[in-house]
């Protein structure tokens, strides 16, 4: 696993950006979670692997869901701000998932695998496969390095208080992401990319960013968005 110390990220750092509901960074996270949530049935018993401060589950899931992460500070924040009868957060270690086989209807990995080395990614995907029910859904998103993402990342690393230089150690595009999950026995049902201009139009108007986002979703089959995604099933 990456040597970057994820406990060094302030608890709730990304959630506080999301909660601003204004500006480019906040729009980025909001639209990203909107896109992923539309791929997952509300009725599913869902696991968010690498849940961080709990933003996705806390704002986009109302039914039985579980978030796990290796950062004790982020899990503490998630439990303090988002836990409920139906949404639970749990600290895990790097050895695997502490759940029975065939437990979940769906699992999300939202911008997680780029933080992991190849060996850890393989372990994570094997654990996801084991813990999913038959016909269970796996949804992954990760930066698309066949888009303009490398340029965007360069400026983020220069200007943001939190750099990705030591965090993003595995790089994918839509095709290599599909090859990865197929190698781990998942069947890819849908793939593509998302987020292009929409987050940046939030500089003008939050409402405008939502309208542009709805238009951009029609372009998801093209490999031009900053984030790649795969929608997979366990057959």
Structure, explained:
By secondary structure, the protein is of the alpha/beta class. It has one domain (6-233): Vaccinia Virus protein VP39 (Rossmann fold), CATH 3.40.50.150. The chain is built from nine helices and seven strands; from the N terminus they run ααβαβαββαβααβααβ. A seven-stranded mixed β-sheet has the order 3-2-1-4-5-7-6, with helices on both faces. Helix 4 links the parallel strand 2 (65-69) and strand 3 (87-91). The chain is globular and about 45 Å long.
In short:
By secondary structure, this protein is of the alpha/beta class.
List the helices and strands and how they pair.
Blueprint lengths: L12 H7 L4 H14 L8 E4 L5 H6 L4 E5 L2 H11 L4 E5 L12 E7 L7 H14 E12 L5 H11 L14 H10 L3 E8 L3 H4 L4 H11 L10 E7 L2
Parallel strand pairs: 1-2, 1-4, 2-3, 4-5
Antiparallel strand pairs: 5-7, 6-7
**CA(first)-CA(last) distance:** 29 Å
Spans with pLDDT under 50 lasting ≥5 residues? none
Q: How is the CATH topology named?
A: Rossmann fold
- Give the beta-strand count: 7
Radius of gyration: 17 Å
Could you report the average pLDDT, rounded to the nearest whole number?
A: 94
Per CATH, which architecture? 3-Layer(aba) Sandwich
- Summed up, the helix count is 9
Going across the biggest sheet, name each strand in turn. 3-2-1-4-5-7-6
Q: CATH superfamily name?
A: Vaccinia Virus protein VP39
What is the H/E order? HHEHEHEEHEHHEHHE
Assembly context of the chains: single chain
Number of domains: 1
Structural class, judged by helices and strands?
alpha/beta
Q: Which sheet architecture does the biggest sheet show?
A: 7 strands, mixed
Determine and state the CATH class: Alpha Beta
CA-based shape: globular
Strand content: 15-25%
Estimate the helix proportion, in percent: 25-40%
């Amino acid at each position: 696993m990456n040597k970057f110390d994820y406990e060094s990220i302030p608890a709730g750092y990304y959630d506080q950006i999301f909660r601003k509901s204004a500006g480019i960074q906040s729009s980025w996270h909001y639209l990203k979670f909107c896109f992923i949530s539309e791929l997952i049935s509300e009725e599913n018993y869902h696991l968010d692997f690498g849940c961080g401060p709990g933003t996705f589950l806390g704002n986009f899931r109302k039914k039985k869901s579980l978030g796990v992460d290796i950062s004790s500070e982020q899990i503490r924040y998630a439990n303090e701000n988002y836990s409920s009868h139906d949404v639970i957060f749990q600290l895990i270690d790097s050895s695997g998932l502490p759940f029975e086989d065939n437990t979940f209807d769906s699992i999300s990995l939202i911008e997680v695998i780029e933080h992991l080395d190849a060996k850890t990614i393989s372990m994570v995907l094997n654990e996801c496969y084991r813990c999913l029910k038959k016909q269970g859904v796996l949804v992954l998103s990760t930066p698309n390095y066949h888009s303009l993402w490398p340029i965007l990342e360069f400026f983020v690393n220069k200007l943001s208080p939190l750099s990705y230089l030591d965090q993003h150690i595995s790089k994918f595009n839509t095709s290599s992401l599909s090859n990865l999950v197929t190698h781990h026995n998942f069947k890819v049902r849908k793939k593509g990319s998302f987020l292009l201009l929409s987050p940046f139009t939030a500089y003008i108007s939050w409402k405008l960013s939502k309208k542009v986002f709805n238009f951009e979703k029609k372009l998801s089959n093209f490999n031009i968005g900053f984030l790649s995604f795969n929608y997979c099933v366990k057959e």
